[in-house]
């Protein structure tokens, strides 16, 4: 089938402002949208620029705004988007070129919530014990691939780029609710600040955008409750 | 731009990050052409092996034996001993660093069965693979990256390495392209580690990411460093049909089985003891045989992976990601339907030769090139020999990434920087300038596409002289065509067309080395199966291939290096049966 892609283009070396370009390519309904982007790049216009790597939804490189929603181009199939599809860079991030956005601020926010295991006890000679139930408690957050789809879909970020954003909170949640971790108080103090969890307005765009099916808004609410009650065990 | 560090690590996957972790008091730069969390380590699914014995009796020596036998005796046995012994502590270290393993009811790390991992030297499958659902690599990469943040490791993200600098007989730095700005940078260092991964994109059907273009191997090769055992390339039995995306061996570890078009679970016919859990080279050959003899599904070139009898609970709890891949890309529901699969290009057992401390060694006498290290898939220790066992790739990353890091810590304490060679950026600048200014009219995409088709046709699970020679001629032609590649994007900012063209050059060199090794090795061993030489030949071929780049683009000189055996009758090469 023929598919027409309307793509928002911008090259800072040449363009004063972004513009829309249209490309029509041959594609199969079970092709990935990424395949269509590659077809354009490899056969029509080599200047079209986007990130991609694993091509099956686990590396998080190719998050972009597809028909108005943040998706991974390698997880969306042509049959999901039909014969006409609009592709833009994610909102809420500075654009570097075409569909490539600057992810550095996003990673700075991720780093700010101390996304690593904090322990003060001596390590045992073998593994620390953790029951399957304790392990399940933080499973959702471990699925995050840091693609930015949630953060780039959030109106609170669009309005305030300094906000820490959903992805960072998901990754804080992953440690706050890990029974092995001893850094809960430090992280809750960070997330209780002005640009912490409270700028979340429970809009649920993030949950809709997550390509890994993480219930992002729910996890943010759990962190809010942990701050209010000062205890990760109250839910 | 010029910058000076003690250590420069190229690649931010498991091996690179594990090495960086060992250098807390050094100035370290980690260069990665993607954001670190995009590295291909994150795509590993099924697990990481260690003889913890959490669920049943197990010993590191059994793991070592399986590794040696699985590699069809091309494994350097002291390296396999280190792998199997160190794996245990390495797993505990990863757990201490936060890796969220699945747990047993009593809270210990859960373990599952995996191909070729056995109890008591081949008796039956053993539960040795430590896992985190079917995204163990993702969890490992995340954990390593989290610890790198904790240790304030300095990253240079989206920097593509172009050249390795050598002076006064030592490696002294790396030249790289900053993708975002198009600037060329020189990183001057006492020690350089390559941890750049594999080159699975040389084949059309592959489990590998677009990033897996053989960068590190080709850069070293161009600088006169040999590549070892490149003919030993693994084709994973269960890639999603046509897509190539991996369906973890963990599925078979949980009990999934291969089914042919006649409804037979055919592996029990070939390998009565391990059945579907035989090593990957064997299972891939059996699948190709079934297809060739007309027992593919509907006479086509695929068979099924059948998970239906595992039940919804096991599938959703232990294999959620691969289930979603089948649903999303093939529209198949694994809980109710068998999944179409075919062998897919997966892993390079060969690569840059190293010793057990990750030091690159450049000849058959194990002469090191001081200051140069390699770890992970880019390296050939050789711990995987002619066929890697499932889960041993992640073990390799953490065990030898760690050893390389520790050795570099000692090396930089005892050595100063050597000066950079004169005109040190010329080679890299010429490469980039040539591509940006060429008017040859050739398309990089066309060359890549033809290469991938040729490799799938003639350098796949089964090989023979005629096909390999055809591949050699094709690659030689493509190397010529490559000189005329012309780009549409001449810009400085984030020029991914330039990046893809540079990577294609790397890929062509890796493919050429693979075919050189495969043409020369006139026997069948592990993943290298020659229809015209179907037997293993220990008298003439129990040795590693070393391939040195020749003068012409596609020329090479071959040498060989002894396999290191240990004095223990258990590990004496014998016929490989499962």
From TrEMBL, chain A:
Question: What EC number(s) would the UniProt record show?
Answer: 1.3.5.1
- Xref: InterPro entries: 2Fe-2S_ferredoxin-like_sf, 2Fe-2S_ferredoxin-type, 4Fe4S_Fe-S-bd, 4Fe4S_Fe_S_CS, Beta-grasp_dom_sf, Helical_ferredxn, SDH/FRD_Iron-Sulfur, Succ_DH/fum_Rdtase_Fe-S
Top-level EC class: oxidoreductase
Q: Which reaction does it catalyse?
A: a quinone + succinate = fumarate + a quinol
Q: Report the co-factor binding details.
A: Binds 1 [4Fe-4S] cluster. Binds 1 [2Fe-2S] cluster.
Gene Ontology terms for molecular function: 2 iron, 2 sulfur cluster binding; 3 iron, 4 sulfur cluster binding; 4 iron, 4 sulfur cluster binding; electron transfer activity; metal ion binding; succinate dehydrogenase (quinone) activity
Keyword NAD set for record: no
Query: Which parts of the sequence belong to the 4Fe-4S ferredoxin-type domain?
Result: 134-166
* Keyword Lipid metabolism (UniProt): no
Q: Which UniProt keywords apply?
A: 2Fe-2S, 3Fe-4S, 4Fe-4S, Iron, Iron-sulfur, Metal-binding, Oxidoreductase, Tricarboxylic acid cycle
Q: Where is the 2Fe-2S ferredoxin-type domain?
A: 1-91
Set out the biological process GO terms recorded for this chain's protein.
Answer: respiratory electron transport chain; tricarboxylic acid cycle
Which cofactors, if any, are listed as required? [4Fe-4S] cluster; [2Fe-2S] cluster; [3Fe-4S] cluster
Q: In which pathway does it act?
A: Carbohydrate metabolism; tricarboxylic acid cycle
The protein's matches in Pfam families, at most eight in alphabetical order, are given as:
Fer2_3 (PF13085), Fer4_10 (PF13237)
**Entry's family note:** Belongs to the succinate dehydrogenase/fumarate reductase iron-sulfur protein family.
Supply the name of the protein.
Answer: Succinate dehydrogenase iron-sulfur subunit
Native species: Thermogemmatispora tikiterensis
Give the organism's phylogenetic lineage: Bacteria, Bacillati, Chloroflexota, Ktedonobacteria, Thermogemmatisporales
Automatic annotation (TrEMBL), chain B:
- The record lists FAD as bound by 11-16, 32-47, 215, 377, 393-394
What are the protein's GO molecular function terms? electron transfer activity; flavin adenine dinucleotide binding; steroid dehydrogenase activity, acting on the CH-CH group of donors; succinate dehydrogenase (quinone) activity
| Protein name in UniProt | Succinate dehydrogenase flavoprotein subunit
Note the PANTHER family from the entry.
SUCCINATE DEHYDROGENASE 2 FLAVOPROTEIN SUBUNIT, SUCCINATE DEHYDROGENASE [UBIQUINONE] FLAVOPROTEIN SUBUNIT, MITOCHONDRIAL
Q: Which reaction does it catalyse?
A: a quinone + succinate = fumarate + a quinol
* UniProt keyword terms in alphabetical order: Electron transport, FAD, Flavoprotein, Membrane, Oxidoreductase, Transport, Tricarboxylic acid cycle
Indicate the segments forming the FAD-dependent oxidoreductase 2 FAD-binding domain, all copies: 6-394
The UniProt entry lists membrane topology as: Peripheral membrane protein
Q: In which pathway does it act?
A: Carbohydrate metabolism; tricarboxylic acid cycle; fumarate from succinate (bacterial route): step 1/1
Residues modified as Tele-8alpha-FAD histidine are 40
Cofactor needs: FAD
Keyword Oxidoreductase on this protein? yes
> What biological process terms from GO does the record include?
anaerobic respiration; electron transport chain; tricarboxylic acid cycle
* Assigned protein family: Belongs to the FAD-dependent oxidoreductase 2 family. FRD/SDH subfamily.
The EC class name is: oxidoreductase
Identify the species of origin.
Answer: Thermogemmatispora tikiterensis
Active-site positions on this chain = 280 (proton acceptor)
Give me the Gene Ontology terms describing cellular component: plasma membrane
């Amino acid at each position: 089938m023929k598919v027409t892609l309307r793509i928002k283009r911008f090259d800072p070396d040449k363009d004063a402002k972004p513009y829309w370009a249209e490309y029509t390519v041959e594609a199969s309904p079970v092709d990935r949208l990424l395949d269509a982007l590659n077809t354009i790049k490899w056969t029509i216009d080599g200047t079209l620029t986007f990130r991609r790597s694993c091509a099956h939804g686990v590396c998080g490189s190719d998050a972009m705004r597809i028909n108005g929603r943040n998706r991974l181009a390698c997880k969306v199939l042509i049959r999901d988007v039909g014969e006409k599809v609009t592709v833009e860079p994610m909102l809420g991030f500075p654009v570097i070129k075409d569909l490539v956005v600057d992810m550095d601020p996003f990673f700075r926010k991720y780093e700010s919530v101390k996304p690593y295991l904090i322990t003060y006890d001596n390590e045992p000679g073998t593994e620390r014990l953790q029951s399957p139930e304790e392990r399940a408690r933080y499973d959702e957050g471990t699925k995050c691939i840091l693609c930015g789809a949630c953060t780039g879909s959030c109106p609170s970020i669009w309005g305030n780029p300094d906000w820490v954003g959903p992805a960072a909170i998901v990754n804080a949640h992953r440690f706050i609710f890990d029974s092995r971790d001893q850094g809960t108080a430090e992280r809750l103090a960070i997330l209780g600040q002005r640009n912490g969890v409270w700028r979340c307005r429970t809009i649920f765009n993030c949950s809709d955008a997550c390509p890994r099916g993480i219930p992002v808004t729910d996890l943010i609410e759990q962190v809010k409750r942990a701050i209010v009650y000062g205890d990760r065990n109250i839910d | 731009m010029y910058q000076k560090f003690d250590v420069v690590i190229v690649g931010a996957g498991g091996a690179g990050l594990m090495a960086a972790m060992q250098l807390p008091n050094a100035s370290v730069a980690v260069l990665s052409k993607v954001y670190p969390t995009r590295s291909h380590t994150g795509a590993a699914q099924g697990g990481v092996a260690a003889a913890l014995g959490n669920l049943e009796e197990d010993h590191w020596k059994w793991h070592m034996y399986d590794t040696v036998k699985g590699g069809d005796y091309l494994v350097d046995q002291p390296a396999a001993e280190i792998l199997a012994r160190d794996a245990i502590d390495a797993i505990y270290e990863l757990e201490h660093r936060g890796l969220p393993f699945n747990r047993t009811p009593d809270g210990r790390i859960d373990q599952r069965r995996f191909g070729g991992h056995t109890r008591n030297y081949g008796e039956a499958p053993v539960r040795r693979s430590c896992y985190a659902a079917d995204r163990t690599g993702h969890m490992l990469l995340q954990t390593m990256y989290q610890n790198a943040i904790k240790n304030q490791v300095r990253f240079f993200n989206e920097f593509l390495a172009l050249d390795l600098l050598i002076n006064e007989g030592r490696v002294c730095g790396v030249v790289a392209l900053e993708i975002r700005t198009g600037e060329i940078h020189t990183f001057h260092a006492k020690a350089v580690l390559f941890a750049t991964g594999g080159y699975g994109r040389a084949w059309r059907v592959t489990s590998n990411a677009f990033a897996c273009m053989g960068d590190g191997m080709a850069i070293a090769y161009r600088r006169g460093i040999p590549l070892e055992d490149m003919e030993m390339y693994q084709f994973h039995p269960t890639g999603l049909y046509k897509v190539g995306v991996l369906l973890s061996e963990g599925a078979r570890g949980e009990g999934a089985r291969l089914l042919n078009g006649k409804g037979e679970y055919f592996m029990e016919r070939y390998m009565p003891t391990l059945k579907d859990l035989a090593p990957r080279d064997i299972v891939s050959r059996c699948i190709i045989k079934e297809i060739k003899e007309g027992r593919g599904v509907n006479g086509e070139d695929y068979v099924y992976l059948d998970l239906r009898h595992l039940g919804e609970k096991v599938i959703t709890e232990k294999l959620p990601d691969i289930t979603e891949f089948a649903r999303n890309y093939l529209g198949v529901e694994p809980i109710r339907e068998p999944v179409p699969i075919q062998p897919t290009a997966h892993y390079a057992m060969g690569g840059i030769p190293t010793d057990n401390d990750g030091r690159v060694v450049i000849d058959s006498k194990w002469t090191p090139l001081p200051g140069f290290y390699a770890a992970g898939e880019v390296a050939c220790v050789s711990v995987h020999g002619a066929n890697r066992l499932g889960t041993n790739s992640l073990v390799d990353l953490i065990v030898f990434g760690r050893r390389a890091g520790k050795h570099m810590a000692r090396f930089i304490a005892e050595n100063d920087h050597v000066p950079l060679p004169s005109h040190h950026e010329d080679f890299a600048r010429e490469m980039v300038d040539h591509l940006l200014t060429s008017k040859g009219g050739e398309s990089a995409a066309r060359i890549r596409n033809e290469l991938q088709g040729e490799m799938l046709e003639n350098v796949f699970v089964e090989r023979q002289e005629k096909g390999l020679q055809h591949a050699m001629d094709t690659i030689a032609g493509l190397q010529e065509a490559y000189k005329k590649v012309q780009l549409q994007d001449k810009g400085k900012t984030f020029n991914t067309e330039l990046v893809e063209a540079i990577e294609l050059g790397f890929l062509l060199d890796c493919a050429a080395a693979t075919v050189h090794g495969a043409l020369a090795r006139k026997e069948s061993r592990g993943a290298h199966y020659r229809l015209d030489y179907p037997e293993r030949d220990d008298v003439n071929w129990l040795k590693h291939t070393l391939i040195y780049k020749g003068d012409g683009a596609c020329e090479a000189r071959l040498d060989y290096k002894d396999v290191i055996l240990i004095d223990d009758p258990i590990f004496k090469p014998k016929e490989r049966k499962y």
